[in-house]
Each structure stands twice: as structure tokens, then as C-alpha cells.
Amino acid sequence: MNTSDRAGSRDEDPGDTAEGTRGALPRRSFLLAGLAGATAGFTASLPAPAAAADGGSATPGGRSANGWPVTGTGITTLPVPGTPASVALREGDVSMVLVHVIRRFHYEVEEVGPRELAGHRPAAGLTGHTTNYASGTAVAVRPDAYPLGATGVLFPHQEAVVRDIVRECGGVVAWGGRLRRPHAAHFQIDVRPGDPRLRRLADRIRGWTQAPGLGAGVFLLGA
Q1: In this structure, are residues 19 and 214 in contact, taking their beta carbons and an 8 Å threshold?
Q2: Total-model pTM
Q3: All domains of the chain in start order, with CATH
């Protein structure tokens, strides 16, 4: 894939939900029909995945499209709580955020099976947004079900949830469904190393995982 496959601009979305102040009940009890109806009026834009600075391929020692160093170190394979799956990601704040995204996808969009996640991989052959896998800052969720270039793979209510997941992340995460050549399975960190928004979001998620009734798997009233 080359730069012509990617969206040419990014629309900033300041949306950032404050989950700690709302009541809770199981997310799966939420009526999907109501969410599907809300989708028809959904107009908020989301950030498109960042473009590679050089528009080319990933190389060891270089940087991926989102500005992170391509590396084979500092990568950890983590189980995703609530699922039978595990995934290799850059350890620390990056993995904290992307595992949260996967968990919400699993609970609210489609269940994730034991071999349905693709994370870090070697740089060879990766171009465009896929170079982010070589830095450990991207994950593909159910990539066989949502292959690169496929359209209409999510129902409207499912896409509404995906958009909500990205909005909750406040510009830190981008979804590949907005690429010119869509990649609905793809989620990536969309800020550069050292951006304070990543640490703030990771710290929020850490707090949710320690508080009963918060975090992935819980629907929050007022969302």
C-alpha cells in the first residue's frame, strides 16, 4: 500500500468522555437497535491515521508512519482480559491503550477469538499505515473478517461503537476504516512519542481497570 491509499488530512475530534462520573450496567444489555438509530444522525468526524513522513516502507532503525521507532525490542505479548486472545505490542502506555481498544471491540462490536489479533511484526514488506505494526503501535482486530480494502464489513451500530471508542481516546487512537482504502480491522496510536495525551489516556484507563463498574465491558449511562 502506498500513500495514495491513505486519507490526505486529519480532522481533529476533541471528544473525550469522562467515564468516572456516570452510572453503569452491562454494555451487552444495551439495545443495539437504539444505537443503530443514533448512527443515522452521527456527524462527528474522526482523525484519519497519520501518514508516513516519507510515504514509503518501514526499515529497521527507521520510523513507522505515526512517527514511532521501528523496533524488535520493548515488545511484549499480552493476554487481552476477557478474551482468549493475546497480542504483541510496544510495552507501557501504548499497550495499555490498545488493549483497552481491543477489549471494548470484543465486548461491544464482535467477539475476538484466540487467533484473531495481529500486532507487532517485522518491518520487511510493510508500507503506509501498516508500518505501524513494525513499531508495535498498531493492532488488527479480526483481520481475516475485515480485510484491507473491504467495505461494508461492519453493521451501522457496530461502526457507531467503533467511532465511540476512538472518540473516547481523544485523538490518541485512529481507526483504519477512514483510510481511502479502508482497513476496518486496523487501530493505531496516532500521536508521536512523548505526546502527553498518550500518558494521560493510559493513566485514565489504568484507573478504570482498578475501579468497579468502570472500563471495558461496562456500559455507562450518558455515553
Answers
A1: yes
A2: 0.74
A3: 55-211 (3.30.1380)
Cell 483510510: give the residue. 179
**49-54 average pLDDT score:** 47
Q: How far apart are CA 168 and CA 170, in angstroms?
A: 5
Q: Which of 105-139 are b and which e, b meaning 16 or more Cβ less than 10 Å from the residue's Cβ?
A: bbbbbbebeeebbbbbbebeebbbbbbbbbbbbbb
Q: How confident is the model at residue 40 (pLDDT cuts 50, 70, 90)?
A: very low
Residue 140 backbone phi and psi in degrees, to 5: -110, 125
CB of 141 within 8 A of CB of 177? no
Binned at pLDDT 50, 70 and 90, residue 61 comes out as: confident
Confidence band of 45 (pLDDT split at 50, 70, 90): very low
